UniProtKB/TrEMBL annotation:
Residues 2-190 form the Prephenate dehydratase domain. It holds the Pfam family PDT. Keywords: Amino-acid biosynthesis, Aromatic amino acid biosynthesis, Lyase, Phenylalanine biosynthesis. Pathway: Amino-acid biosynthesis; L-phenylalanine biosynthesis; phenylpyruvate from prephenate: step 1/1. It catalyses: prephenate + H(+) = 3-phenylpyruvate + CO2 + H2O. This is Prephenate dehydratase. Its EC number is 4.2.1.51. CDD domains: ACT_CM-PDT, PBP2_Sa-PDT_like.
């Protein structure tokens, strides 16, 4: 049986993992911290880790990318795009004449993961401007904390699954500020992902430019340009070795097995650049 490490049950990571592994017998290994998710797979306790890496609204999750680059050596085996639908979760109030209602004025604190919170800031400003905001390790953890503090006036931003798992109510559905809110997830681990196939293939690399080489980035990009190789993302991150030194993470819409990529990589190395292949993998898009 495949064992998959991920953030807590009821989180968006949990929903996304169930989509990717639909129809496959999988044991989910839930962890509170993303560091423990990575280390579970790095130490051989699980086959894969599920890593949220990029969001439509907030962009890249730099901490998670830094773990892939600096802390562990786990190849990317798949990526998939999944809708990130957040909801306001708490307890409905009982009316004296029967029925239930939501009284936003009684909500004094809202808890969630910082990325999920940022996706709902406009809603919070309009509906809950008086509430304190508190960041926790995951949306599922936020819901659990609210569950454990009844009658406190606390609410969480999280998934409907987390609400159901913890016996709480969805106070308001779909509170994200944009309807096209999607999160990109990576599956990392040593084993190739063969449960599903996709016509869309990608390759991710990390490139370090030579120092004191004017125009190096331009020449690097030209290697792909004249071959008409499409890049879906290029992002700079500090090397953490010297101020002003950066490496570049590049996502290429092409498999490593293609004819063009090996020659492109050889030309990049001839420029004095260092290349680290982060993975060559299938790419999936959610079809609800």
């Amino acid at each position: 049986m495949i064992k998959v490490a991920l953030l807590p049950q009821g989180s968006v990571s949990d929903e996304a993992a169930r989509y990717l592994f639909a129809g496959t017998e999988v044991e989910m290994s839930y962890h509170k911290l993303i560091a423990d998710v990575f280390l579970s797979t790095a130490n051989g306790h699980s086959d894969y880790s599920v890593i949220p890496i990029e969001n439509t609204i907030e962009g890249s999750v730099s901490l998670h990318m830094d773990w892939i680059v600096h802390e562990v050596d786990l190849p990317i085996q798949a990526e998939w795009i999944y809708p990130s639908v957040q909801n306001l979760i708490g307890r409905l109030e009982e009316l004296s004449g029967g029925g239930q209602t939501v009284d936003n004025s009684r909500i004094v604190k809202v808890l969630s993961h910082p990325v999920a919170m940022a996706q709902c800031l406009q809603y919070i400003r309009e509906k809950l401007p008086h509430a304190d905001l508190e960041h926790v390790s995951s949306t599922a953890e936020a819901v659990r904390i609210v569950r454990d503090h009844p009658n406190s006036g606390w609410a969480a931003i999280g998934t409907t699954i987390a609400a159901a798992n913890n016996g709480l109510d969805v106070l308001d559905k779909g509170v994200t500020d944009h309807d096209n809110n999607y999160t990109r997830f990576l599956l990392v681990g040593e084993k190739p992902f063969t449960d599903r196939t996709s016509e869309k293939q990608k390759t991710s690399i990390l490139v370090t430019l030579p120092e004191d080489y004017p125009g190096a980035l331009h020449q690097l990009l030209s290697v792909f340009s004249w071959r008409r190789i499409n890049l879906s993302r290029i992002e700079s991150r500090p090397t953490k070795k010297k101020l002003g030194n950066y490496y570049f993470i590049i996502d290429i819409e092409m498999s490593l097995d293609s004819v063009l990529l090996p020659a492109a990589f050889a030309e990049i190395e001839a420029l004095g650049c260092q290349i680290r292949i982060l993975g060559s993998y299938p790419s999936f898009t959610y079809e609800g």
